[in-house]
């Protein structure tokens, strides 16, 4: 009896395998057009809030590429609290855009004569060329070109930077201290939650895959969708300071604008650039006499407190530091804009 059962099972096996193979073929035939449609999903429409931010900006050309920026200042007859010549430039992080500054934009415009925020090349509403060799050096040159276009080259400017923008700010600091042609003259530099030191920077898994895998990166950039994006961004916000659904969607929309998801792997090479040029950028930070301040969200998993802050204080002894509440994470200007502003204004008024 047992032998007959085994024999019958063995005789049925090829037929079962054939049916299974046919089933997978059918699944594949169904999935191919679905994937093809998915990969060509148009970018989402701008929300009213994001449309307002976009319509309030302008574009200038840098080496044939369109760069989006916003510029606004205090009324000329009031000059703001700090005087008519004060300029602040805001440098955003990865993978978002100048819209990261929207919660502190109005208070800054009431205090400074000029407030300027731009989308780096490859981000937000700026052009996102591909293939393209994205570099921190080029982004610094974009900022210098914008300052020159606005006629502010002779002004002393204040920089406020976050995440990716921190590294661009360090290149601008290096050029300023070295008196390079076309450089910005810095009045102050305020950094926040950036990977200044490669040894204390822990990029997320998807970032590591995108920057290191030439095989997987093209596939991952196309398959990354809103839910994957939302999960990844949500992990670098505190549990009590999560963006609203509308805010998550605005971040995703600005990323998808001009197919920005397809250049993420190229932009992420900045992590490797930090390692290669550590001496240049950390050296500028530790040797400058420009007033420095760090505003830090201590729950940050990308630049965690136990490693980052002690090293920062050890190496950058001329800098002051504000550590925000323990539930604030990687995006302090969005998670706690009031405390971020208070810390920044206290720093500005201290010198």
The CATH class assignment of the largest domain is Alpha Beta
Run of helices and strands: HHEEEHEHEHEHHHHHHHEHEHH
Rg of Cα set? 24 Å
- In helices, the fraction of residues equals 40-55%
Describe what this molecule looks like in 3D:
With 351 residues, the chain is an alpha/beta fold. It folds into two domains: 1-40; 48-348, Alpha/Beta hydrolase fold, catalytic domain (Rossmann fold, 3-Layer(aba) Sandwich). Helices cover 48% and strands 13% of the residues. The chain is built from 15 helices and eight strands. It has helices spanning 2-39, 48-55, 102-111, 136-149, 164-177, 205-212, 217-223, 226-234, 245-256, 264-267, 270-276, 278-287, 305-315, 332-335, 337-348; strands at 58-62, 65-72, 87-91, 114-118, 156-161, 185-192, 292-296, 320-323. The protein has an eight-stranded mixed beta sheet with strand order 1-2-4-3-5-6-7-8, sandwiched between helices. Strand 1 (58-62) and strand 2 form a beta hairpin. The radius of gyration is 24 Å and the shape is globular. Mean pLDDT is 87; it is low at 1-11 and 75-85.
């Amino acid at each position: 009896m047992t032998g007959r059962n085994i024999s019958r099972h063995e005789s049925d096996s090829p037929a079962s395998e054939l049916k299974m193979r046919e089933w997978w073929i059918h699944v594949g035939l169904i999935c191919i057009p679905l994937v093809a449609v998915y990969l060509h999903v148009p970018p989402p429409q701008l929300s009213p809030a994001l449309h307002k931010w976009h319509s309030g900006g302008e574009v200038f050309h840098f080496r044939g590429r369109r760069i989006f920026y916003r510029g606004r200042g205090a009324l000329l007859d009031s000059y703001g609290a700090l005087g008519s010549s004060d300029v602040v430039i805001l440098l955003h992080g990865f993978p978002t855009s100048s819209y990261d500054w929207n919660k502190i934009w109005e208070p800054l415009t009431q205090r400074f004569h000029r407030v300027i925020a731009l989308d780096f090349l490859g981000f937000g509403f700026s052009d996102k060329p591909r293939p393209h060799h994205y570099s921190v050096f080029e982004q610094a040159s974009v900022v210098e070109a914008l300052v020159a276009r606005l006629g502010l080259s002779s002004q002393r400017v204040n920089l406020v930077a976050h995440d990716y923008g921190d590294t661009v700010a360090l290149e601008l600091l290096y050029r300023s201290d070295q008196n390079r042609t076309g450089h910005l003259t810095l009045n102050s530099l305020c950094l926040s939650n950036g990977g200044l030191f490669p040894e204390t920077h822990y990029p997320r898994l998807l970032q590591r895959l995108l920057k290191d895998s030439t095989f997987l990166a093209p596939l991952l950039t196309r398959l990354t969708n809103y839910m994957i994006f939302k999960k990844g961004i949500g992990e670098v916000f505190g549990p009590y300071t999560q963006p609203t659904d509308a805010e998550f969607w605005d971040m995703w929309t600005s990323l998808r604008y001009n197919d920005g998801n397809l250049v993420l792997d190229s932009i992420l090479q900045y992590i490797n650039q930090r390692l290669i040029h550590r001496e240049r950028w950390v050296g500028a930070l530790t040797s400058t006499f420009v007033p420095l301040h760090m505003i830090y969200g201590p729950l940050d998993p990308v630049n965690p407190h136990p490693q980052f802050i002690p090293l920062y204080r050890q190496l950058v002894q001329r800098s002051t530091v504000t550590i925000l509440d323990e539930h604030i994470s990687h995006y302090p200007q969005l998670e706690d804009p009031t405390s971020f502003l208070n810390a920044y204004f206290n720093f500005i008024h201290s010198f």
